[in-house]
Amino acid sequence: MKILGVYNIKGGVGKTATAVNIGHLAAASGLRTLIWDLDPQAAATFYLRVKAKVKGSEKMLRGKRELDDVVKGSDYPNLDLLPSDFSYRNMDLLLGENKKPAMRLLKLLRPLSKQYDLVVLDCPPSISLVSENIFRAADALLLPTIPTTLSLRTLEQLLDFMQGHDLKTPVYAFYSMVDRRKRLHQDVVASPGDPRCTVLNTVIPYATEVERMGLERRAVTDYAPRSSAGRAYQALWDEVRAKVGGLRPLPVFDSPF
Amino acid sequence: MKDSSTNGFLLPHDLSPARLVKRLGGDERCQIDGSAEFSLTFYDSFDWRLHAAGLRLFQIDSPQGRFVRLKSEGSAEPIDSVLFEGDPAWPADLPDSALKTQVAKLLDMRVLLPLARVRGEAIELRLLNEDEKTTVRLQLLKLQSDSPEVDEPRALWPRLRLLPVRGYEDDLQALATTFSAQMEWPHAKDCLFDEAITAVGREAGDYSSKLDIKLKPQQHAVDAMRKVLLNLLDTLQRNIPGARADLDSEFLHDLRVATRRTRSALAQVKHVLPDALVAEFKQRFAWLGQVTGPTRDLDVFLLELPHYRASLPRAMAGDLDLLEQHLRDAHRREQAKLKRALGSAEMKGLVSDWRAALEADALPGEAGWFADLPIEQVASQRIWRMYRKVRKLGRAITDSGPPEAMHALRKDCKKLRYLIEFFRNIYPDRELKDIVRALKDLLDTLGEYQDKEVQAEKLKAFAQECVRDGPQGVPNVMAIGALVADLLRHQQQAHERFADCFARFDSDANRARYKRLFKERSGQLG
User: Fold this and answer.
1) Quick check: helix, strand or coil at residue B114?
2) For chain A, which terminus, N or C, has the lower number of CB atoms within 10 Å?
């Protein structure tokens, strides 16, 4: 089982769209995939048409309830969701109750390793104990980054934090919501990135198809796979899969008998 | 979802996907996603070894690929599935897997044969809740039997499968309840096995080499014997095509056992069938025994070959390649002869004449003296006498006696065993069990003794041929020498075991059983 954290300190950079589309493509390729919506805003949960839980996850985070019991199947074969919960807004406090708070998520995920090939963590913005948990649990971090000065500053902040905490998790940044008409966007995309992280080749364009996800409540890669955004997410998934490695699906024996 | 029967339903033949959607609440509640075609071929050995072990093996051709799957009867979850492009035949050819290990162990020397094929279309549907979220997946399966044995494809019952979506199991349960309670659709068994097998006119377990002939103790001996002999003839005939095609070595083996049993029945159950009939068919079946012998001997050798190799040090195992080549060449020649013999006019005549005689209103010729006696009396007397004969022969065997005495004893033991097998339904099962066990042990020991000797003799003869090849034959001769030594050691061990085995057979307790079961039922014949 590989764990991929989709993260950025900043909000509104396309994290949830990335998590849902990557999750959908992974599942469609035959990987048993779980998306864990860790953001109390519950956007991934909404996109996948699952009702967010109002409470109850405290028990799960305290280890009194199995993750297993909370998982919901999505509309897509092979793709399950661990829905968001409003109590996630207090997740820092809940995690802080544990002996090794920074390792809590990894411990919770471990029992799922036989059931899933890939777990995608849709992380809340900000930098906190939750983020540290994610950095420690993930095999790789995927960072959607808007090519603006402010956004690049948050990327630096993250890399500083990781360096300071001696975190070696590979960071794959990619430019998201790129508007080719904007000179600034073009310049940033063309410039060499921070040497402490890998900048992926794929660029996700700013596109109305992605915004329509809220109306469609489906993955772009499902309702508009041939659109520029749909193709970009496919390219992103291909790149991520190659970088992370070990994500080869077993043959799917999906038969009526 | 341990037992899938709760999630599968048989549907009315005329229920189209569109009507199903309507019944499930229309387009807003149920969506058709698409469909895929697939086919399914069930496999087992000719004698249903997998079925007997409660297993189902089938190959699925689907858009996801071609794979072989093993399941337990009545279970939804497969034991194992493997991708396999070819047609399954020998378990050894399947990819290494739990499936292969389990199937190979059960099948032993038997080959997998396709039993029945089903073609189908799976139409995928989804049930949606008020958020248009999928809560249950459904598969509507349209199926038809499509086997070479049947002229026209035959429609099987359409099925509906409910597949759970995680976290929405209650929705599935509610739907299943609606189907069974309101629509009154019957639950379907997990896998199509029974329906598919019936559609090609077969019945699971419809062949076994074990005798299970239903007889009544008071039935006239002549009628019982006709039934026994017809049963043997059926077995014999059913094995002819497989033996001719050499699908696996068991067809010929079972054919030969049926032949030996027939000859034994003719010779041992005296004064029941007309003498002239017995004399004629004893001879004709002796011919069949003869023409099938050489191929069987070579089959035995080829089956033993892996054991031979394993018994030699690894450095020498390769020195048996020449022997293997020799055996395979000889087998090819003998198999061709066998195929001709089994397809000959003589063979066809034997089978049809014998069937005509056994099925005639009255047997041709003068009935034997015992023909109208109850079979219980006649069978019991024959078994009792044969038991006494075996006992007498066995007691005369000494450690230093000639091997021929052991061989003669084995022959009579086999006759005794056949007699017991023909008539076993007349006798109480529980008492017969101990008798059969002691006899089987004795026969196994005698068989081991004789088989090892025969094999050693044949290997020696082959070594002579190798000697004629000159110096390059030396490694072969040496490997065979090692094999012969090993065989003779086993033979000697069998001889050493004999005394104990025979003592159990000849025990007071066993004698009392024979007496109670057979002597006392022989009436005035005893």
Assistant:
1) strand
2) N
**DSSP code string of B430-479:** HHHHHHHHHHHHHHHHHHHHHHHHHHHHHHHHHHHHHHHTGGGGHHHHHH
A81 burial (CB, 10 Å; 0-12 / 13-18 / 19+) is: buried
Half-sphere exposure of A148 (CA within 13 A, CB side): 11
Tens of pLDDT, residue by residue over B9-59, are 999 888 889 999 998 889 889 999 889 899 999 999 999 999 999 999 999
User: To 5 degrees, how large is the angle CA A31–CA A6–CA A15?
Assistant: 110
Contact across the interface for B64 and A51, Cβ inside 8 Å: no
With a CB cutoff of 8 Å and minimum separation 6, the contacts of B293 are B256
Chain A residues whose CB is inside 8 A of the B64 CB are: 251-255
Closest CA to B244 of B347, B157, B142: B347
> pLDDT class for B190, splitting at 50, 70, 90?
low
A124, A131, B370 from A139: Cα distances, Å? 18, 14, 87
Q: Using a CB–CB cutoff of 8 Å, tell me whether B5 touches chain A.
A: no
3-state secondary structure (DSSP) of residue B339: helix
Taking CA atoms, what residue in A is nearest to B66? A253
Query: Smallest Cα–Cα separation from B210: which of B451, B428, B435, B417?
Result: B417
Residue A213 Cα to chain centre, angstroms: 16
Chain A, chain B: beta-carbon pairs less than 8 Å apart? 63
Q: Is the pLDDT of residue B62 over 60?
A: yes
For chain B positions 154-173, those within 8 Å of chain A (CB to CB) are 159, 161, 164-168
Q: Are strands A118-122 and A2-6 parallel, antiparallel or unpaired?
A: parallel
Tell me what pLDDT residue B346 has.
Answer: 97
Percent of the residues in chain B that have a pLDDT greater than 70, as a whole number: 98
Query: Which phi and psi angles does B495 have, rounded to 5°?
Result: -65, -40
Tens digits of per-residue pLDDT, B384-398? 999 999 999 999 988
Whole-model pTM: value is: 0.81
Q: How many Å apart are CA B357 and CA B230, to the nearest integer?
A: 10
Distance from CA of B202 to the nearest CA of A (A): 21
Structure ipTM? 0.83
Note whether A75 contacts B191, CB cutoff 8 Å: no
> Rounded distance, CA A199 to CA A21, Å?
19
Residue pair B179/B173 in contact (Cβ under 8 Å)? The answer is no
